[in-house]
Amino acid sequence: MKTQVMIVLAGFFVVAAAGSEQLPDAEKPASTERPPAKLSPAENRRAAEALAEIIRTQYVLEDVAIRSAEELLQRTHDGAFDEPRTPKQLAELLNAAVREITGDGHMAVRYEPDFNVEDDYTPKPETGRIHNFGVREAKRMDGNIGYLRFSGFHFPEVGVEPFAAATTLLANTDVVILDLRENGGGSSLMSQIVMSYFLGSEPTQISSMWRRTPEFEKQRWTLPVLPGRRLDRQALYVLVSEATFSAAESVAYDLQALGRATIVGERTGGGAHKIDYPSFYPGYRVQMSVQRVINPVTGTNFEQVGVKPDIVCPPSEALDRAVLAAIELRLPIETDETIRAELLWARDEANARLHPIGLSDEQRSGFVGAYGRERIILRNGVLWCQRDDLDPWRMEVMAADSFRFPEVTNYRVRFERDETDGKVLRLIGKYLSGTEVVREREK
Fold first, then answer.
1. Pairing verdict, β 235-240 and 175-179
2. Which of 61, 109, 68 is nearest to 87 (CA)?
């Protein structure tokens, strides 16, 4: 077996010969010939048989390849594809069949007579720019927690620069939350670079990649030099969902296997294999798994099983669950009083979102009144707080007697009651810094 070590240094880097994501010329058949507008049963069969043959010879797992090809041929001979239809309709029918037969989420049959595989491996700045090449949001949250929402792995030539900028922004945080819940994958080279940011400068093997034909193995390692800043000292939480797929899953899976990240959310889609786009009939191509990715720690991958989170929860709760886990980790060791106050503040916010409560009109009316500089008003079932002559702030309930203000992020109020009759006695305003101001209710 031929083994290649793949080191990718893109954009700011050097690209090693073994590291090209582009397919060898021999594996990029192209045809300008087009099938007729309407296909006959015989032409349908020839296309299906050609698809079965390319699956048999090139699909990554030989046992699955043989079984799937035989099943597809059997369906072909049983007349499943005989009905005359347009080339696009046949592609849709074949697509549904191969996805069902293989169980592989990467499999896709397409009718694209003008497709040029060279174009598919060319960065497209005009399409990636509107999504900032995957870097949708990067910010510092309360408690010195960094948050990076990353929606897609674009080619390194265009994807590295914005990601490096995000790492620079988050370099001084103590925790990083990497949000891959809406990330369906993309460039495996970019995923290798992304993982390198969260691991040290000492080379670490991420995975091996094995292929049947021609038989070879590639190793993927972290990169020793990166633009921007490494985030290797921060505690790391990776948010995932069922929509997290392919290259995005590999980041979560490999960082989890290395003990580097805590995964939060729901089980991912389960697409571990690497794909090619071979043509199998004039005008048709198949997106097909041709390389098996093997993690050096687990000895396997996440194909069709997904990445199992360490903290299981609905995707909608994943960010708050990660924040709470980070706070539990940081509070016992944090010595800076300002940061500690922010951590406690963030904990209350996360718990309020995870455990919302409602108030009746009668309960809301119990807070109405004047409290020194602040007046609580009830309008159309909504509580408002007005300070002096300023515009009122809308109040959102956090707990039975605690409220936040969406427009004011550094101030909250809670109310204290008489232990005898339960009536509200005073308002206590609390600032993010931890400072509290007590305002008695006016008679």
1. parallel
2. 109
3-class secondary structure, 270 = coil
- The interaxial angle of helices 337-354 and 318-330, nearest 10 deg, is 150
The number of residues in the chain equals: 443
Please give the angle made by the CA atoms of 173, 166 and 205, to the nearest 5 degrees. 85
Question: Cα–Cα distance between 407 and 404 in angstroms, integer?
Answer: 9
Please state, in angstroms and rounded to a whole number, the distance separating the CA atoms of residues 375 and 429. Answer: 12
Q: What is the pLDDT of residues 135-174, one digit of tens each?
A: 999 999 999 999 999 999 999 999 999 999 999 999 999 9
In the CATH hierarchy, which fold is given to the domain comprising 125-276+293-330? 2-enoyl-CoA Hydratase; Chain A, domain 1 (3.90.226)
This prediction has a pTM of: 0.86
d(CA 56, CA 324) in angstroms, rounded, equals 49
Pairing of strands 396-399, 369-371: unpaired
Q: Per-domain residue ranges for the chain?
A: 21-118, 125-276+293-330, 361-440
